[in-house]
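Two records follow; treat each independently.
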Amino acid sequence: MSVEPSADATEYGAVALPEIRVEWPQALAPTLRDSVVDAHSLDREDLVAALPGLWRAVDAALDLAGPGSLVVESVRHDAYEGWQVAALPRYDLDGRVRPRERGDGTQHAAPQLRDRRALIGALVDAVAERPCLDLRDALQMLDVFAGTFPPGLDAVCRRLLGHELRHGVAAGLAPLQEALDRRAPGGVSTLCFRESAVGSRKAKGDPATDNEDTAGALTGPSGVLRCAVFDGVTGDGDGSGGTAARAALEQAVRRWRLEEAAVAGDAPPSDHHPAGPGAGSVDAPRSVPRGDPSSTGPGSPVSRPGELIAELDAAVGRATATGSAAAVLATVRPDGTASVVSVGDTEAWLIRPLRAPAGEIPYTAWKLTPAHTGFAERLRVTADAEGEESQLVSFLGGGTARWAHRTFRVAPGDLLLLASDGATEPERDRWFGAVLAELTAQLDASGRPTAPALAAALVQRAEALGGWDNATALVCAVGEAKD
């Protein structure tokens, strides 16, 4: 490295601007985005599981170069060599590396805000459809595209930003990494709880049409839990959104019962048509988009996500010409495998206990679904997206151009939340995942049954925040398999 005065600088001028050239003694691996997007040396779905290796490399880099030495391009990955961190040390005016200030002992250096922002930017940049601009852009994309990003990445980035990390990044992220990798050692059992409210500012004085949310769950003899939340959308307040939501739930329940019957061998396969039209009929399976993953498991004839959404869309179309609905549906199997399919702005979250040190909130949460809104569509192409947060671009009732599907695993102690957007109302400058973790910890400490208390608390919170919308929360408690 050399330091030379700028050609524009005059001798003893008021401003001296050096030109710094950095030479790396070893070859640099591709940046993380190049590794994931171009070289495909690291699959985006495997990113979160591979992060412990990065945290160790970051700690080593900060120990050598000192805090404040990371930029987005510092995070690199090679298919054969693994993680590499290209740190940029601080320099003295004579061009030499300024030694970092070491305290007593072997405690790792805590990353500065610049380091944290660089790590978050690199992680989001690697999985986003377009390059990430800055921290604000990264956090917006994490929220809007959560269901298409690797599951848990939002929780990782939020912990990077908010945790003290005084003992190093690897130590600070270890409880979360353990939670993200946790699997059920045996089977699981499930119980569902639901709460719903109109919202005082949404109420118009007609109990039959005021609440356009609906939700339901079914656990059959196979032990498979199927549950859903539908959020009706009405343009002129005529209650057609509620009609749409109820029609979608009725169709979902018919499908669930057919699937259970097929497993038991008591009915034809899931694409069978009962004779004749009417409320009891099941739509013909639609053509499945190319690349549409099947949510089926061994011996479980479950509809593919595209087929399921097409059936629900057709059911809404038969029930109303003006109403529509957002939807989120989840399936949890006795072996701990789970899936969620969503359309619109309804949300699914997974809340999991943390084996965290005393004094920390013992829960974490991450989002499982993206948003299908005008804002999300704009954010796909530009970081300057604004407005249109509540304008749906995909919904049941003629607008199912885009839907999302995510598979994951649950473990005993988990809480799976399905909610309408009224129950996930954001607070100013506060991530909803942090709200969920703190609220769950408070309810757990109170001694009340956590799952039903959380459903009720989310509905009460929606009213406390203004009661602007119907709020529905369905919470599935995951326990150990019952003998």
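The next record belongs to a different protein.
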Amino acid sequence: MSPWIIIVILGACAIAYAYIMPRKNKAQEPGHQLVQEMESTLEHYMTEIENDNDALIRRVAELKGEATAADQRMQSQLQELQQRLDQLEQSKMNEPVASPVQHPGNMPVQASGGLQAQALVKSVQAEAAQQAQEADLQSSKTESVPQRESIKVRYAELFSLHAEGKSMDAISKQTGIQRGEVQLILQLAEREES
């Protein structure tokens, strides 16, 4: 073989290699772009979760404050009623003992007045305890992790389009959600179902 044929063959190989190299780079770009889209989608999702958690923490703090305020009000009412009861008992003790008038239930009037006051205090104490329990139950309910709505409920339009057999590009255009995010949502829904 003559040297000029070898040079022509080497030139043809160089040209073919030059055409192949840019195609490899172009083939790698969509995969890299998909990774970037998934990363941005996950960052967006994590930001949403952080915002939801912050809102939940604020609400729990508000409920605890409300429960504490209600408890303090009940305690002050209870103390006030206890003082009134003590005053009534002191005034009853300071009064001269007269012949007690009998009630139909054979109970003296003075004794029934003290018993009524004690019953009133006990009912107020029971009511305060019940309200404190209700406040504790309410705050414990809000402290538990709330049930998140299904991903199919949050993205109902996306799943209806997917059920119609639309492509990911068509779904992306109609919903305004990026293609990578559409793919991620569909994958998350599959995991949620399994």
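Discussion point: Residues 99-104, 106-110 have pLDDT under 50 and may be disordered. How would you locate this feature using only the token line?
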